[in-house]
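User: Teach me something about this protein's shape.
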Amino acid sequence: MKRDITFNDLIKISDNIYEIPKSYRSDMLVPARVFMNEEMFQDIKHDRSLEQLVNVATLPGIQKYAFAMPDIHQGYGFPIGGVAAFAIEEGGVISPGGIGYDINCGIRLLAASITLQEIKPYLDELATRIFHKVPSGVGQGGNLHFKSDELDRILKKGAHHMMKLGYGIESDLDNCEENGVMDFADPQMVSDHAKTRGADQLGTLGSGNHFLEIQYIDEIYDDKVAQAFGLSKDQIVIMIHCGSRGLGHQVCTDYLRIMMSKISEWGINLPDRELVYAPFKSQVAQEYYSAMSAAANFAWANRHMIGHWVREAFHEVISPKMNVRTVYDVSHNIGKIEKHEIDGKIKEVITHRKGATRAFAPGRIEVPEAYRSVGQPVLIPGTMGTASYVLVGTQESMDLAFGSSCHGAGRRLSRIASKKQVHGGQLRNQLEAQGIIIKSNSDLGLAEEAPIAYKDIDNVIRVVQGAGLANKVVRLKPLAVIKGD
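Assistant: First, the predicted structure itself:
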């Protein structure tokens, strides 16, 4: 009989790392590790996230541990904040629920050549211009609509194809995970239904926790790394959070259904049907990975387009000479074939990061050349009323958790619970009283994403740095928030 995991079930490894031992449940193949402090346990003890993490620890081919980042909360299959790597040559698997519905939801950070003081006269007009240029909201279509052959080229080549169409600049690709394209993508593995859902959604923000923020750098913690990233005190930056929209959601839905139909044929017994998986070398898994890669390419093209329109807005409102460059673009909700040293051997694994961010160390070839000597930028947003952070990957993170970090503050209240406690109109007034411009047509949408619904971002960052997952570089504070309904 299953029971709730209590704090007494956890073994304290350090102030920031707790372990659920392999002995906790007989079907666990590895222990489960949670990066958190005691305070954070109060936020997760009432949901199923730790039970979900234990379920992940039962999957074939899993290496070292099933990990949960400090922003852990209940998800579909994997907990959000879940990380796991499966050795391909040891029967490793791929799970759509371990990657997520919003494939390659991620963060793009732009930096502008303007300071806090300089932007103030333009801020409201700039936020309004961006709000009108970048469509946002549930099912919201955009200014672009691609026919099937053009959409297939985007699914195949991602942000690179948007460059061919005349959008963006070359450094947008240089400073993007995978340079904005996963080569394994095959548009033919994406259903017509998924393509139809995505056909007019390129360059759109979406709803829920997706956002676009104009921010400024209010604190620098590491001068050397900040300089390498091209960031300075009081500089204006723009954070874009969105993913693959309806197309990615449909890809996940399609392959969950396909894999579920194969369970009996494969003889798989699942601890949770949401955790359905396929052996990575199977045809179904390869087809899903190809479709997932295509959806990831769509997401990079999406953020690339939004970045292009943000740059246009700066040029139109402030100056055509304004330099607005991509600092970096990180992915959440993605599976990648990576090589890691495990127990003294280099192994090829399929790494799942579900609501988690890659945080690779200095020297890794995957890190852009401009940043390779210091490590990969790690972008962690907070809430619209608090702060966000730029961190940098560490070697310790490679050793601890396959070079991974959290992807945000992490929910502590459901959207329904948040709406019961917060009135969106009052929240809007409170934020505007703090000098934060809000561009959103929905007070209900604001209430769902209220700061109270999320964990304390400063505490989350303390755990990230304390555990060694990533090191703080700069802190960002919001000036204007753009959200869908």
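Now, about its shape. The longest strand covers residues 470-482. The chain has a mean pLDDT of 93. If you'd like, I can walk through any region in more detail.
User: That's plenty for now, thanks!
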